[in-house]
Amino acid sequence: MSGEDSYSDDRPDTVAPGGSILFALPGTLVDWDPRRALVGQYPDGVVDMVLDPNDPWGFACVSRQINLGVDPQRALADYETTHGPAVAWVVRVCLENCALAVKGLLPGASDLLEDLQRAGLTLWGLAATTRQLTESASKVLSPLSALKDILISSEEHLDLSDPLFYRLALRRFAITPGHTIFVDRDPEHVAIADRLGMKGVVVDDISSLRQLFHR
């Protein structure tokens, strides 16, 4: 590990007033499910095929490209070369209805954010998404205004698998790694935050988040 990729190991076991919490989005706070964009329009078998997480060139690949700033039409064209026009059309419909995939914040998330703010903590976000999606779902995502700022992957051409995204957040937000907790459901992302000097925590639900921050 290079020197520029590491920081002081003075990491918080729990977050304290004046510290920062960096949330990965949508995994930790946002109720997001791409199936909602397709349910009722196609049979379940078709939806399962299109959203198959084991397909290396499937919807997850298209979504990741778009979240990195690739033009959606280009991403769809690439998808069509491997899956054909009929299946590519289903993905197109999913993308056009992407706002339906965002139900809002997970139950209890809004109250938790308010409690953390009252406790004197500064809240931030790293979002694997696009500005278009956040704006189209702005009404149901309004409680995210509790976050002081959010870096959006498509605007930075970086995602949560890239340490540069985290380093950019540390610099842009002017936060100290040793006083910052990073929260995500993905252990690989949490490991990146750990390597950069933050306290990375794998959390699966809002109840676990409450236990973490109220010990």
Shape: globular
Number of distinct beta strands: 7
Strand content: 5-15%
Helix segment tally: 10
- Output mean pLDDT: 90
| Secondary structure category | alpha/beta
CATH superfamily of the largest domain: HAD superfamily/HAD-like
How are the strands of the largest sheet arranged?
A: 5-4-1-6-7
Evaluate the radius of gyration.
Answer: 18 Å
Report on this model:
By secondary structure, the chain is of the alpha/beta class. It folds into two domains: 3-32 and 103-213, Rossmann fold; 39-96, no CATH class. Helices cover 41% and strands 15% of the residues. It is built from ten helices and seven strands. The protein has helices spanning 44-50, 59-67, 72-83, 85-96, 109-118, 131-136, 153-156, 163-173, 187-195, 206-213, and strands at residues 20-25, 30-32, 102-105, 122-127, 149-152, 180-184, 199-202. The strands form two sheets. It has a five-stranded parallel beta sheet with strand order 5-4-1-6-7, with helices on both faces. Strands 2-3 form a two-stranded antiparallel ribbon. Helix 2 runs antiparallel to helix 3 (72-83) and helix 3 runs antiparallel to helix 4. The longest helix is centred in the middle third of the chain and has 12 residues, at 72-83. The radius of gyration is 18 Å and the shape is globular. Residues 1-12 have low confidence and may be disordered.
Task: Summarize this entry quickly.
The protein is of the alpha/beta class and 215 residues long. InterPro entries: HAD-like_sf, HAD_sf.
